[in-house]
């Protein structure tokens, strides 16, 4: 039925809706075949709403540009002068990356205030503009069933924690997740800040850890974009001894919370009753990351290091394990060992594949159905690297599967790069150099990747946000 709607009617509708409503309309237009590659329609969208709202059309415009460039390359003489000008116009108007560093956030927020018709200038000014003067971003993650994301870190001026739900489609902060009265009792400073170290979001919960102590804060979500008890979070005291490296991960249904750390302790808590239901401790096997099997809350994956005889960090090896956490069981279902440290892992959406990354960005893809290695992902710089020249301060890399059934995954590579891989053949699709754009500190030097719930955007805790199609379709075309 959608394909029967005349294009001119859709164009007229655009004139009478707000910018925010336009996002919903154009998301629907993606499924209208005749609009998918209609340059004039998407050009009109941008003419109505400006490049400030380019996220509305990024999916369609990227696809259109790829196809148009391919056609132009094959038959450039068939293109009129006006069509060539249109291609140049797309290149000039469309930005491939969008950064969430505080300077850009403040600039875009000021633009929003100038066009805001809700009469809430003062309220937004107090809650956002004044608080974004000196924020160091250390964590970010997506919120299920929402286009919102969570951005956290600390305030550089005084070291106090910072954690916000951020609506990047409107470039505003939605909710402050920090309960100020609770944190006032801690003696944090700008040289030793109360920084957010890890954050995770489930279907109706948010949990986060910090670098100051072993407190795990639990916040429940109610409805869409609204936090029920954000002014009074439940504090879970984790029994981890290493309070500066605590990773948290909620199960898909938010019933269980996995807490891991570099002291080799892995705990699983019942979120509703805040009770420990499963635990394991192996001090010689620090755990760098954990992830739940997406279709089974009983299976927990973890990866980390094996401290071999304390003879030096360069002699450490790595491991990947899968545990069955059901009552009275500490059964190790699966286990792999590696020649260097494993620092991050991710389960594909269909739960068929496991991707994990080693020190310096080397990755592997495993087929969990037959427990066989699918591919090894080796960055060019690692092919001639001497891994015995090792510093304890190396970054713990991260990996995440891109949506769809194409078998693409993204992994970080020290120093400050992101590789996009085809896991089926192990070939590198694209490389993003972060060093030219982002400044790292001791509190965000371990990269963390995530994918938004709608599968359209890739997040990095260093303060960046990319369109998935920029990384897959455009890169594939260029290759």
UniProtKB/TrEMBL annotation:
Organism, as annotated: Tieghemostelium lacteum
- Quote a single Gene Ontology cellular component term: Cdc73/Paf1 complex
Query: What's the protein name?
Result: F-box domain-containing protein
* Keyword tags: Repeat, WD repeat
Segments forming domain F-box = 1-45
PROSITE patterns documented for this protein: FBOX (PS50181)
User: Which InterPro entries does the entry mention?
Assistant: F-box_dom, SKI8, WD40/YVTN_repeat-like_dom_sf, WD40_repeat_dom_sf
């Amino acid at each position: 039925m959608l394909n029967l709607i005349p294009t001119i009617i859709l164009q007229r509708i655009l004139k009478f809706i707000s910018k925010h409503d336009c996002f919903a309309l154009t998301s629907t237009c993606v499924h209208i075949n005749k609009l998918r590659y209609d340059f004039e329609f998407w050009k009109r969208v941008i003419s109505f709403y400006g490049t400030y709202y380019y996220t509305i059309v990024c999916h369609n415009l990227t696809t259109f540009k790829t196809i148009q460039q391919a056609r132009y390359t094959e038959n450039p003489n068939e293109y009129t002068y006006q069509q060539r000008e249109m291609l140049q116009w797309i290149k000039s108007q469309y930005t491939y990356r969008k950064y969430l560093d505080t300077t850009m956030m403040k600039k875009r927020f000021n633009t929003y205030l100038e066009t805001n018709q809700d009469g809430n200038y003062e309220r937004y000014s107090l809650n956002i503009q004044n608080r974004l003067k000196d924020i160091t971003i250390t964590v970010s993650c997506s919120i299920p069933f929402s286009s919102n994301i969570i951005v956290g870190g600390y305030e550089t001026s005084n070291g106090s924690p910072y954690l916000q739900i951020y609506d990047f489609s409107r470039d505003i902060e939605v909710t402050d997740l920090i309960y100020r009265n609770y944190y006032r009792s801690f003696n944090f400073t700008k040289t030793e800040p109360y920084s957010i170290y890890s954050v995770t979001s489930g279907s109706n919960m948010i949990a986060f850890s910090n670098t100051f102590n072993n407190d795990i804060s639990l916040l429940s979500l109610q409805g869409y974009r609204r936090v029920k008890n954000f002014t009074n979070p439940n504090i879970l005291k984790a029994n981890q001894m290493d309070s500066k490296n605590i990773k948290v991960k909620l199960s898909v249904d938010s019933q269980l919370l996995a807490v891991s750390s570099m002291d080799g302790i892995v705990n699983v808590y019942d979120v509703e009753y805040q009770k420990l239901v499963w635990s394991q401790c192996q001090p010689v096997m620090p755990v760098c990351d954990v992830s739940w099997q997406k279709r089974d809350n009983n299976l927990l994956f973890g990866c980390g290091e094996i401290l071999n005889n304390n003879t030096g960090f360069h002699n450490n090896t790595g491991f990947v394990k899968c545990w069955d956490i059901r009552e009275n069981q500490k059964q190790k279902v699966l286990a792999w060992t590696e020649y260097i440290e494993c620092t991050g892992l991710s389960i594909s959406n269909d739960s068929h594949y496991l991707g994990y990354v080693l020190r310096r960005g080397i990755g592997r893809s495993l087929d969990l159905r037959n427990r066989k290695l699918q591919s090894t992902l080796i960055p060019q710089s690692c092919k001639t690297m001497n891994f015995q020249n090792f510093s304890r301060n190396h970054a713990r890399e991260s990996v995440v599967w891109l949506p769809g059934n194409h078998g693409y995954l993204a992994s970080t590579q020290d120093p400050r790069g992101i590789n996009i891989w085809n896991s089926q053949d192990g070939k590198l699709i694209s490389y993003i150099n972060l060093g030219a754009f982002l400044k790292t500190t001791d509190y965000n030097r371990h990269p963390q990747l995530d994918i938004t719930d709608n599968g359209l955007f890739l997040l990095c805790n260093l303060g960046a946000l990319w369109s998935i199609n920029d990384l897959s379709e455009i890169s594939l075309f260029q290759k």
